[in-house]
Amino acid sequence: MSFPRPPDWLIYVAVVGGLLYAAVSQREHVDAPPPSSFSPVTPPVGSAQGALLAPASPFDPSVTVDVADRTGPSTGTAFSVASSGVWITARHVIDGCRQAALVVGEGRGVAARAHIDPRGEAALLSTEGGSPALPLDLAAPLREGEAAYHPGFPQGRPGETASRLLGRENLVVHGRGARTEPVLVWAEVGRTDGLKGSLGGLSGAPALDSQGRVLGVTIAEAPRRGRIYTTTPETVQRLIEESRTTLPVVAASGTPITPQTYGKVADGLRRDLRVAQVVCLT
Q: How many domains does the chain have?
């Protein structure tokens, strides 16, 4: 007894469908539960890392952004680097502000003075009093594929993302503060459950390694490509040195972070105001 041979088109559809399923099932995706409702059910992520990241080069690929003049108030994220009241944020969050402030409670803020890096996408804020500092890790070598976690206030609400390091690019800024600077490029692999669309408001958030140490400052995204951009560690180091800011010695390690706990850790950092929302008044 013989069975009829299926048509060729059916075979092709089955093969293509199998390939698509295999490709999608291999994609890394580690969403975090909504803030303050953490449940450790996030899928695990492999710890494999690639080669050491090469030094920045003018021949690295470029990404271009246009910075327009401010037309109204805006918000972003900042993080503490000294309990005396020293914070770091992204330059464009506060550049052009009449007054910057850190939100410390419902309807309450603390005025902040700004020092902007003229050559990079980072800025210092100083306030009267502060919160416990996050440890910095600005000298360790970077490896392709290593993880980073970005806690902050995307869309003006508590939220976070997880990413993997892809490499370096040159950020070409047009408009206010035109310049070119090296940046790090990360592939987004997870975010707060229910967070859709733009990550606007996450600018200024720390990029934390698995030991809770700051590697850089979150500065931009490319939604269609699923990319997140941060400053390089060198940019943050230069900002600190040129501002003549003396930072206290902070323990080499922060709170360990994993794909299963980054939502809970982010909640704790915001609750302790080690990561805070910035408001820019024009």
A: 1
Cβ-based neighbour number of residue 119 at 10 Å: 15
d(CA 76, CA 25): 34
Encoded amino acid at 191, one letter = R
Q: Name which of 158, 90, 160 is nearest 125 in CA terms.
A: 90
Tell me if 36 is assigned to some domain.
Answer: no
Which CATH number does the domain housing residue 148 bear?
Answer: 2.40.10.120
d(C-alpha 26, C-alpha 141), whole Å? 28
Write down the pLDDT at residue 259.
94
Residue closest to 184 by CA, chosen among 168, 201, 170: 168
Q: How is residue 140 written in tokens? A: 């360790």
User: Tokens 């804020």, residue?
Assistant: 125
Burial call 88-104: b when 16+ CB within 10 Å, e when fewer: bbbbbbbbebeebbbbe
Distance separating alpha carbons of residues 228 and 231, to the nearest angstrom: 10
The pLDDT assigned to 96 comes to 85
Distance, CA of 260 to CA of 118 (rounded, Å): 38
> What is the number of H-type helices and E-type strands within the chain?
4, 13
Q: Is a pLDDT exceeding 90 seen at residue 49?
A: no
Output the pLDDT for position 134.
95
d(CA 107, CA 204): 21
User: pLDDT at position 37, please?
Assistant: 45
Neighbour-count burial of 235, counting CB atoms closer than 10 A to its CB (0-12 exposed, 13-18 middle, 19+ buried): buried
What pLDDT, in 10s, does the model give residues 138-152? 988 999 999 999 999
Would you say residue 8 lies in a domain? no
